[in-house]
Queue: 3 jobs
Job 1
Amino acid sequence: MGFVNKNLQALLEESIAVGAADAIDIHIEVHDGITILNYMNAVPAFAEILLERLYGNIFSSLAHYRIYNGTMGIHTYIACKDEQVLAVLLYRTAGTHVRILNEATQFAAIEIDRFAQHVFRTYPSVNVISLHAVSLEGKTHGFPLQRFNCLEDIVLGLPSSAEEYMAGLGKSTRNYLNRYQNKLKRAFPALCYETYTRHEIQESHIHEILELNRSRMEGKGKLTPWTAIDRQRMLELARICGMVNLITIDGRICAGTINYRVNDNYFLEVIAHAPEYNDYRLGTICCFITICKCIALGGKEYHFLWGQSDYKYRLGGVQHDLEHVSIFRSRRQMLRNANLVLSNLFHCYDRKMRLWVKEMRRRDNAIMKPVESVIHSLDAIKMAWQRHKQHWLGTSSECSDSPKTKLPT
């Protein structure tokens, strides 16, 4: 992993000069031909483009950090060799703990090892490094750790044309899409597909899609996770790097998706449709149209993100598992952080249990239905408690350093 930037040396030299002028603390190390730059309490301007090119992920983008968490107190770690950037990691420190902020991203395990070595050298008081919802390529060495599956990202590689994409789907899926698209056109001649990007996106677009989602979730006895603050942040991010696709019938929004683009990759934030159009499979049709639009705009990947919904696999998505990782300075420190170790174990087995229940439900195991109802009730209580705390604190939970992807479920 890594990319070559012919102007990297000039960028680094300029950044160091600017850092010196602005009194920014920059630590520089060179080990085995690898140059490491650590910007303390600062994010250099050029880090934004490096993050986009290296990871191409909304959860490793400065736009997302600025809106959901702010950049105050963030440190920037950059590892490079000659003109090749190997890693760009944003992180925060809190006492004995360091948390890497990049999420839903694939890293070479050797780069995480190198970062851990640097952190434990630089911060003698730090004993734990955590990463959430990441994929490590290869094995880590040198430090004891815990790692467990916490989420999945369903990813679709995009071909060069919508025709090629359609041809690559299974025969039953092609027939399914053609049948319901034709059914929609016959029943609703005034049906329209609309696409809006960045500053074209209106607050009403976001509001209508989220209201459709809320209505559908309430019909299933579930709560939607978005607060008023979350809705505003979603609009802000969409106007920076978003794409909204709508299906309207007689001028009314009946289905829509909210997506973000980073580099050539698209990320599905929300999909929703009016329940009265269930017989037309409007949600799946809307997602299919969205994917075709991403292809037309030169997209390379479409990330359905988490949630093992059948439509994601039907439309060609492939599951990529994501892990939560805790790295400890030593086995002694692992024992001294027994509460964290036990918490990780709890989340690990909670995740396994939930996946097992879902699998049993897919097999129409009737015994699992009441178990799943209990889980949904517990989740609803947890969400209500979180909203209660937000109300009394007068802020959103996203202001904390809690993961911006979902907590392990």
Job 2
Amino acid sequence: MGGATKKPISTMEKRLKREAEKQQKAEEKKKGQSKTGKEVISRAVTIDDETKKRVLDEIKKESIVTPYTLATKAGISISVAKKILKELENQNIVKLYSRDRRTEIYVAA
């Protein structure tokens, strides 16, 4: 019958202040920080000679190579392993044997 009462001014001020802080934090997150806390400068992958040597040794040992097997044996991430295999395919060191919707299978050339 009486309806809802108006909220006090102090409560409304607090709510507005909290919303402004949330918005400010969201803007800071969007600005430059990634999930890992490091800024992403370039997507290019640089591979040192030691890692490249390890990868080539693993390819010679195995009859088939997938990005997952290469990543686990060489101690690198799967995305880096994919990029390495594509680069090696361009250099004709490995050959793409089969491509599925999820993964590629490579064989030594």
Job 3
Amino acid sequence: MPALSPRPRLLLLLTLLLACALVYSGQALAPAPSALPTVPLPGMPMPLPRDPPIRLQGLPSFRAAYEESFRGKPDARFLRAISELERLLGGSASTSVNARFHEGRWVLQVEGKEVGGLPAFPDFADALSHLEARAHQLGVKRLELKEGPLPPSASPLPMGRETLETLRELDEAWSRGRRSPATLVGAARATVALALQLSDLTETADAVPARALALLALGRATTSAALTEERALLAYVLGYERTARKLASALPSGGAARAFLLQEDDVLEALAERDAGAGVASHLWVRRLARMGRVQRAVRSSRLSAQQLGMGLHVVAPRLLLKGTHPEEQFIGRRRCWPWRGSRTSSRSCPSFSHSRPRPSSAMRMPRPGMPPPSSRASSVRGNTSGPSASCGIGGRRG
């Protein structure tokens, strides 16, 4: 092969260098794969951002960063209750409350000023104690309460429409200057009743339980009322069931709250029968039915009629907690028709109560692989060809 002259050799070398330069520049100017916008395909889950990486700078710093990434913050309803208490005693319309973890405890700050703290895992009792101490710090004398008797502790909680009417009357009395310990305690009890009847399935309605917690702490700080039943029910509403059962054990026997929290079903069922859907016993009994098993719930609920359970808001709301079909079918135990749907007969007059699909006939069913069509299967049954066994091909041999 003849050797190339120097000039063509130089041109070939320059061409190769230019091609390598173009390839390298194209790779450098191309965007990184992670920088490109990723659009998920239809039906695929959305991409979630990753947690920041924990850099190992010694074992103590790594442990602190690891615990910080998995540490749960205090209950948001506790912080909102502090803001409500500041509004009631301080007069500010909106108060920012922050929680900062420092040296094994949560430091609470109101408008940047430290006002106390909570343990690393605060309970309902810790939050209530802090609210009562904060009420004493702000000064309960600002409320200018007039002397007067407290409402009787054995009085039942207002339920249903009575809850809203009680709150409206107490609010009008408070705005007109009729401020007494009975008014404050009554407002706390009515707000706890409202929080008890609230069906917050999405866990987004924090205003009512937070205000109930603030009023409960304020009522205990300004009066000598123990409000044990209200504390137990509110602790249950907020999800602190262990604290609720501990408080319920100190209640006198025979009450609806104690029977509900300690699962004394026979006592609560008898109270609901006497209550006739007008008070807290009916509401708590429906809530208790929602926590039972399906068989036990059907047996217990069949003993009560629709008139005994009532149709008040405080009874209808907890029916949303029941899993299954129509609420009337769930804990009345039998299929009924509402008065505006017709007579209380079978489910044929109540099409909305029939949740099972109609079974297709033999002519509508598709034959299995290797099996004759339904018509030939019915004709191939030997012996008696009349009756339901012949229509579906069951009860004989295949010919």
